[in-house]
Amino acid sequence: MTTTSSPLVLIVEDEPAQREPLEFNLADAGFRVVTAEDGDEAVMVAEEEMPDLILLDWMLPNTSGIEACRQLKSRGDTKAIPILMLTARGEESDLVRGLETGADDYIVKPYRVKELVARARALIRRSRPAVGGETMTYGDLAVDPERHRVTRDSVPLHLGPTEYRLLSTFMERPGRVWTRDQLLDRVWGREADVDTRTVDVHIGRLRKSLTRPGQADPIRTVRGVGYSLDLTSVS
Fold first, then answer.
1. Nearest residue to 170 (alpha-carbon basis) of 193, 213, 199, 212
2. What ranges make up the beta strands (E) of the chain?
């Protein structure tokens, strides 16, 4: 069963016979899933949804998987998203080309679902430490997912459940600017009946919990866009 913090996977596959079983098996493994059917759509959906992993088929109509990979890895907002290439091309030269374009891993068709899920989890753990239970640190902030413990300058902080999920999201990618809609999707879930004003309210509560007298506010407001965890902008 998925939760609001379940990793989001973008499947890019134009063949329904390949795409639909992937959707089912990944959802059954606890992932949230979105899909695209060609390289152009993949780039657009990735920018809108900011998934935790992209499963990218090599052979796609219009823009190929290789070109989509190159574009995604060249853009500042999507370059950190891990990409697992799905390919029927098993020749070493092709696999090397895929990795040199920026793919983080590849799996050759036909593949075993268990192996694909295991590789997906491994890539996501590398990019989202909280998924693997690893303590995340940034400046004087630390979040321990296993103990559900937050500290700043070694002092324990008490956060509500929503504020904890917000901070965990920020800590996974410090400095990245998150839109309100992206935070709604990541923290509350795609189906939650809440609006963007709710994000502002909980950001305010998180700021209050994180900032003590004499400490810098670690959350930066990017007017017209959203928020980021950014201690580097504080003098």
1. 199
2. 8-12, 32-36, 53-57, 83-87, 105-108, 136-138, 141-144, 149-152, 155-157, 178-179, 219-222, 226-229
What is d(CA 101, CA 86) in angstroms, rounded to the nearest whole number? Answer: 14
Q: What's the one-letter identity of residue 147?
A: R
Query: Encoding tokens for residue 88?
Result: 């029927």
Q: Which candidate, 76, 17, 85, 78, places its Cα nearest to that of 56?
A: 85
The single-letter DSSP state of residue 58 is S
Burial bucket for residue 155 (CB in 10 Å: 0-12, 13-18, 19+): exposed
Owner of token pair 């059954």: 28
Q: Is the CB of residue 69 less than 8 Å from the CB of residue 98?
A: yes
Give the SS3 label for residue 47.
Answer: helix
78-128 pLDDT tens trace: 888 999 998 876 555 666 766 778 888 888 888 888 999 999 988 888 777
Percent of the chain, pLDDT > 70? 89
